[in-house]
Design brief:
- With 300 residues, the protein is mostly helical.
- It has 13 helices and 3 strands; from the N terminus they run αααααααβββαααααα.
- A 3-stranded antiparallel sheet has the order 1-2-3.
- Strand 2 and strand 3 (180-184) form a beta hairpin.
- Helix 3 (52-64) packs antiparallel against helix 4 (69-88) and helix 6 (134-149) crosses helix 10.
- The longest helix is centred in the first third of the chain and has 20 residues, at 22-41.
Length: 300
């Protein structure tokens, strides 16, 4: 079978079989399209002509091009998933990527804001929304909810009206792997969302849509708009690290642990399948404690 044809077949069943998000499927598709192009340049067009050496050369070339270790790890996962599927469906006799290994990802602690910084951001956004501007009302509701519920950006942009319970102060979201969970939020976020829904959203809406958060054209807001909003509100805040919506997710998780929340409760809030993924925030809390000790203790 032609390699590109096999890749299309693999991607067609990927989201259904493994419950991966559309973003992950698109990333796998881009990675495997790159693999097919690399193989074609080297005279390999059939799936059965794939071998471990070609796959290793493909990853090595990517590393020489300066791709991040996290990207190389994703490419490795895409290739291994593809060859495993090809073996299971009989396209390949053996899984040629069994011994393909990804480089270890570099370890970076996520960016975390202080409580004072979060308060300053939300106070500034609330002031901008005081006049009733619909976009300003939407923005303060978005940031309040990102921090209050530690949502992923895809969960926030995919949120529908019938999944928001303002009486119980909860949202029902669909996370990674099509896992649904109910996430609480606090009274300040509830007030911001209520005002946006009552005053801001009706002025933004142009066509019927179940989406909670709308863009300037009245349609469901996109992830890029949320990234731009977060980058703007973080632009004047000191600190290093990514300036995307995940900064508020990281911050919320760390503040919960700082306040004594149970690690498994934080895992459930974040929608992590593995407790090990949540444990990164214990390292963040420990680093913050060390920094506080170094700056405050007279004999540090």
């Amino acid at each position: 079978m032609d390699l590109e044809q096999a890749v299309r077949g693999f991607l067609a069943q990927l989201g259904v079989e493994r419950g991966l998000s559309p973003n992950t499927v698109r990333s796998y598709g881009a990675d495997l399209a790159g693999l097919a192009a690399y193989a074609r340049e080297r005279g390999t067009t059939a799936v059965r002509e794939l071998d471990l050496e070609l796959l290793r050369d493909w990853l090595w070339q990517a590393s020489q091009d300066g791709l991040a270790k996290s990207t190389l790890a994703r490419r490795t996962a895409a290739a291994r998933s593809f060859t495993d599927w090809a073996r299971r469906t009989g396209i390949l006799d053996t899984d040629v990527a069994t011994r393909l290994r990804a480089p270890k990802s570099e370890s970076h602690l996520p960016r975390v804001l202080t409580r004072q910084q979060v308060d300053e951001i939300l106070d500034a956004l609330t002031s901008l929304a005081a006049g009733g501007d619909p976009v300003a009302l939407r923005n303060v509701a978005i940031i309040e909810l990102l921090y209050a519920s530690a949502l992923r950006v895809s969960e926030l942009t995919g949120l529908d009206l019938d999944r928001v319970d303002l009486d119980r102060l909860t949202v029902r979201v669909m996370g990674k792997g099509s896992r649904e969970r109910v996430v609480p939020f606090g009274a300040p976020a509830g007030r911001a969302i209520s005002r946006y829904l009552d005053v801001g959203r009706p002025r933004l809406q142009t066509d019927p849509t179940p989406a909670v958060f709308l863009g300037a054209r009245g349609r469901r807001i996109g992830a890029r708009t949320v990234y731009q909003l977060v980058a703007e509100v973080l632009s004047e805040i000191p600190g290093t690290g990514p300036s995307g919506p995940h900064a508020f997710r990281h911050t919320a998780a760390t503040h919960l642990l700082d306040g004594g929340a149970d690690l498994r409760a934080v895992q459930e809030l974040l929608g992590h399948a593995s407790l090990g993924t949540t444990q990164i925030y214990t390292h963040v809390s420990a680093e913050r404690l060390k920094e506080s000790y170094r700056t405050a203790h007279p004999r540090a």
